[in-house]
Each structure stands twice: as C-alpha cells, then as structure tokens.
Amino acid sequence: MNREERKSAPIGVFDSGVGGLTVAREIMRHLPNENIVYFGDTARVPYGSKSKDNIIRFSRQIIRFLETKEVKAIVIACNTASALALEVVREEVEIPIIGVVEPGARAALEATKTKKIGVIGTEATIRSAMYEKIIQGIDPEVTVMGKACPLFVPLVEEGFAKHTVTEEIIDFYLASFLKTDIDALILGCTHYPLLRSRIRAYVGERIALVNPAYETAMDLRNLLQVHDMENTDTNQEHGMYSFYVSDAADKFKQFANSILPFDIETTKQINIEEY
Amino acid sequence: MNREERKSAPIGVFDSGVGGLTVAREIMRHLPNENIVYFGDTARVPYGSKSKDNIIRFSRQIIRFLETKEVKAIVIACNTASALALEVVREEVEIPIIGVVEPGARAALEATKTKKIGVIGTEATIRSAMYEKIIQGIDPEVTVMGKACPLFVPLVEEGFAKHTVTEEIIDFYLASFLKTDIDALILGCTHYPLLRSRIRAYVGERIALVNPAYETAMDLRNLLQVHDMENTDTNQEHGMYSFYVSDAADKFKQFANSILPFDIETTKQINIEEY
User: Fold this and answer.
1) Quick one: CA torsion of A106, A110, A116, A121, rounded to 10 degrees?
2) Chain B residues whose beta carbon lies within 8 Å of the beta carbon of residue A155
3) Which of A193, B146, B160, B261 has a CA-to-CA distance to A208 between 20 and 30 Å?
C-alpha cells in the first residue's frame, strides 16, 4: 500500500457481537471520514464467560480476517478481548491495534476525585483485573473495585433494558458500590452503555459513569495522526461502513439499526473458523 | 469393531454446554452399565440464539469428534441441536443418533387430556416449531403453543435459579399460558429442569411439567436393545464416564459436580474447530 492508499484504507473494529457497535458509533461520530470494517463474532458470542486461551484464539482469527480487508488499524471494541488478548496479539501483527480498556482507565482517572473507582464488566474482564493493573500503573494510590455482572449482557440482548426486573438485577450487582465512596464507575462492557440511564437512576448523580467508547475514538484519532494515516478524502458525506458477522446476519442488522444513527444496508456472514 | 467390542463401546452425548448433563444424568440412572463420552461445546455456547446453518455445522464437528471415541450411538442432549440439526445429520452418519425432541413430544402426548400442550425453549427451538411438527404428526388434533424464554439459560448459568428476580421473569414468559387450558408444558431446553420447582410453584399442579430427559433415556434403551448393543459387562459398579469441553474445563467440572450424583474427576478441553 502506498501512503495515499493507506490513508483511505478502513479501520477494522471487532467485538464478540453487537456490543462493539457502541464503540463504532463513537468512531463514526468523531472521525466521520474514516471507513470502517466491523466484525461481530455472533457465532461464538458471548466472550465474557470464556477462557483466555480461546479469547486469544478467536481474536487472532478475527485479526487475520480483518487483514484480508487491508485495514490500516484495528480497534478491539470488546472489553473482554481487550483485557485478555490485546497484549498478546499486539506483539504479533504489524498494524497498530488499540483496545477499550486503556482509554476507559484513563477516562476514569480523570473523573475521580476520591481516588476510588468502580468497574463493572464480564466475568472474564473482572477476573483479568486489567482495569486495576492499568489504573494503578498510572496512579498506585487509586483503589479499584471490580464487580462482574454477567446477566447484563443477556438482559440487553433480550430487550429487557427497560423492564422492571432489570432494576432488581442492577440492585443485586451494584448495591455494594453504594456503600463505598467511589465517584467513578467504568461501564467495562460495550453492552452496558445501553443500560446507562437505568444505572444512572440507580447510582444517582454522585458517581460519574465512564463509557470507554468516546475515549477510544479519541485514542484512535491520535493514533491515526501519529502514523499520518487519517483519511483526508472528504468527498463523501461520511465513511463507507461494512459489517460482517459469523452468524445470524439479519438479527445483527436489526440490532445495529436500532442503535446506529442510520440504517445499515447489508451484513455479510462469514465462517470465521476458516481464518 | 466386533459384536462384543461394540457392546462395550461408549454412548456419545453432546450439548452446547452443561445443560445436557440433565440428560446424561438420566442415562446414568437408568442405563448404569453404559459408558458415556460427554461433549459440551462451552466455547460456542449458547446455541439457542444462533442460526440453523451454524448449529448444523457445530453438530457435524462434534459428531466427528465423538466418532474418534468410537461411540456406538449418539444422543443429542440439546433441544436446539435436536430441533435444527438431527434430521440432517442422521442422514450423514452410520451410527444411530437420537435427540430429545421426539421423546419429549411423545411424553407430552401421553400427559395431555385437554389436547393442548405448551412448549418453552430457546428462540431457535421455538422458531423451528419442531415440537409442534412432531406432536401434530402423531395427533393432528393437538394444539401446541410455543414460547421462547431466552433469559432462562443465563439465569440458571449465573446461579439465579433461587433468586426472586427469577419469579418475575417466569411470570413475564409464562403468564400467557395460565390463561389457556394447556395441561402439559414441555421443558424444551435442557437447562429448564433446573428451574422446575420454580416453574411448578408458578403454574400450579394443573399443568404437568414434561422433562424430555427421562423419555430420552428410555428411547436410548430401546435403541440399544433393537441393535443388540446393550453393554452386558456388569463387572463395574457403573459405566465409565469421560467429559470433554471446548472451553473452561474447570468451570464445567464445578457445574457438573453440582448436578451429577457423584464428583467427576477430569474434564478435558479440546479444540472442536479442528474436527
């Protein structure tokens, strides 16, 4: 690829399923010129209850797929894969890769005054303690309290975000935070921003809710600037977006259309195990 | 394999994860001489929200794996795979294969007097309408009402079976059945027997709860008799059981030990995508 080709090459964004669309949405909003190839691993979703070995293997396959699309950079738009696979795969590929955990950790550090931060995420993300490692690597005086909330993802995926049971489950998982003086809570799973207003109502205004998606888009912008690979072709209204999944393309499309600011036209299903 | 070797060969039992252990448990109880090789596809669980194409592909890979263990018969201990893949894979392999849907359908037909049967299951199972097809193939006068209950599996897997929110979610899914005169309700997902007492408390005594697991073990017994391949080696207290998963062997073992009548010693993790 020459320099001009590289500038117009797409960004690869991947997630275990639909959750990463909350990150893609921020990239579309703040880097409107960039083209995006999104992959959702809907055949093997969810990642949050699975092992590090398999999450690394899944991530490698997806990166190999994205490389066939000649992406210029990759965003792991999944907290679990960012926490468990990013360190390993970053060493293996030449194109720059960022995740959502580092940006989320930095945003939380900016938000906290009490130096006490809560993190909610999948079982695998919380077990990895990756948010804690990164936060304490920057400021060792900060206390980090993690809590796995494994039912939040199915609640969102099954359309229970607005149902009353969700309040009880939020209470079940988050009650222990209310007794502490944390003043920032990281929504450490890309599905959780879709529960933001319910979580806000429960925790009140004292606790800032940190969504790593915005900060990740800002990180991506910096990365593109540093490597001089921002897309400067402003002839189109916005970038070109293509969507790939490993299963159930129609269901994905429906969900995507409910959370993206425009309707996506096609989603292609591929066999990710072949990569 | 000669005749004696075939008799002592194991039964292959598979499921998307741990749920099929409720079927394996019935086989252990009623066919105590039989050896079992169990496979749980924990790397790709759950199946219930995924497409027919992928469920067929997953089932083929698992059958190829079980064939390497020289099983004499296969039980698909997963309603979703039984409903979506059994018809196709049965044509492709020589060893006899049974699923849980046919036995469950027959058991419900025996239980109903009103000729109105309810079925609960995953999204994919209910969409397939396979229970309805089989029931109406036997008795066209029976009415079948299906309802997908996608949150039941995560509730069980996350240990919420006894939590109060489960009652509200049961009410959400099952309220419409109470207004009908169904008198049999098929627990059409291998996880649901683990919610049996909660569902019983909600629907009352008027409705029989049908668990296909027992009937499946009886079907397996018939099948082995017909093919003259029952294991007649009664030297051991019970059969030999081996457990394989595609992810997180330790977590599987823990769950298995909580629902089987004895502690399992080892669970091996394999890469099912290689089959």
Assistant:
1) -40
2) 151
3) B160
